[in-house]
Amino acid sequence: MSERYLSFPVWCREQFGKRLYRIPLDAGMTCPNRDGTLGTKGCIFCDAGGSGDFAVHYEGQQLQLDEVPYLSCRDAGERSYIFYFQAYTNTYAPIERLRFLYSAALQDPLSAGISIATRPDCMSSEVYRLLAELKKAFPDRFIWVELGLQTMHAQTAEYIRRGYPTSVFDDCVSKLHALGIDVIAHVILGLPGESDEMVYQTIDHLNAVKIDGAKLQLLHVLAGTDLAKEYQSGAFEVLCEEHYVKLVSGCIARLRKETVIHRLTGDGPGNLLIAPQWSRHKKRVLNEIRHVLKTEDIRQGCLCYDFHDD
């Protein structure tokens, strides 16, 4: 690997011979943390948009790129876009609706495949069977599942109202791998009460289950969330830029070299972001991460000793 980490664009060029671009979708679903099944407030950090503030409303229609906001490339051609079911919990609907939506996305000429953001406790036996069926029906398209782990630590998971034990995540990853489906894990860096060592333990856990991809997300405090109330009361402080750059570089060093890194920071909606304000300067942050990796001679997996494949 000539790069210091296996970035998503680099991996795309290796696998597909070109870069792929995500189209975030809102398929009108909800979440057991919002509809009363587990709770009504959602996770402590989640705003009213369910992490889909930039998403396109999707009902299975063929997408027109000129109608997609915030798209980084509109002329990449057919089969150059990932149809990313992003908002809320995207396996939390009747199975026939899921079949229709996923099939429509896989059939769209723009689509290289689909990525489904969901909770591991919302992966029923019906959903596993559906994914196996679709994988067989669309062999020239990929199907990925994105799971919001955020942390492996039970105390933090309870604080953020995640709503399931880490063992449920582990079981879900195992079942998806048995189907030949790649899994992308979301991890939040800077959660209240978590030390750097605790974050690194979460990275070790991703290594142990041999996660395929990781999104390392800086904690954003967004207006209208319960996390914002905690922050404004002085209950915790957000990471400064220097600390975050050091921490994420340490995560890269510890993450298995085979794991694709899909994200190293994040994009909080500008009209909702309360803190940290420095995160608005995404290019600068990424450049600082690259600088630390180079000056400290850090490469992905250089501190990963226990989980390398044979």
From TrEMBL:
GO terms for molecular function: 4 iron, 4 sulfur cluster binding; catalytic activity; metal ion binding. Keywords: 4Fe-4S, Iron, Iron-sulfur, Metal-binding, S-adenosyl-L-methionine. Coiled coil: none annotated. Pfam families: Radical_SAM, Radical_SAM_C. Residues 21-250 form the Elp3/MiaA/NifB-like radical SAM core domain. Its cofactor is [4Fe-4S] cluster. Signal peptide: none annotated. It comes from the Bacteria. This is TIGR01212 family radical SAM protein. It comes from Stecheria intestinalis.
